[in-house]
Design brief:
With about 150 residues, the chain is of the alpha/beta class. It has two domains: about 55 residues, 2,3-Dihydroxybiphenyl 1,2-Dioxygenase, domain 1 (Roll), CATH 3.10.180.10; about 90 residues, 2,3-Dihydroxybiphenyl 1,2-Dioxygenase, domain 1 (Roll), CATH 3.10.180. It has two helices and eight strands; from the N terminus they run βαββββαβββ. It comes from Streptomyces thermolineatus.
Amino acid sequence: MSATAVPTALQTGHIGLNVTDLDRSLDFYRRVFGFEVQGEGREPGRAFAFLGREGRLMLTLWEQSKGEFAAELPGLHHLSFQVDSIEEVRAAEGVLRELGATFKYDGVVPHGEGAASGGIFFADPDGIRLEIYAPSGADSAAAPVAAAPTCGFF
């Protein structure tokens, strides 16, 4: 590949997150997203887990942090997961409510005024901002943010 060539079949691979408590995060991500543990390590100071579905690695968790996610610092803004239907979004919302998750908005909201796509916006146990959305079905709700994408400022 020359210095000016770019990859032609580029797609996002797995996402790696630093967490403070691997067991707590494993429970959360497995219950909310149905992830399966594909591998893990439990050496002192080197705890980690590889999570995925149907043999595809999607998320890695690394227990090497203290404190809570700092949204005011440069880095990850939020991690978004697309599902097929708004019913799946609502089912995930139910699980999250059982877990006591913190939500940015109450219930399913569209991505913007008049948008059909939308979902739920919430935080994981370490305060990492997450979204679960569907490409359609959210247009019956009012957009909570005027003149900006709903997922942009939470």
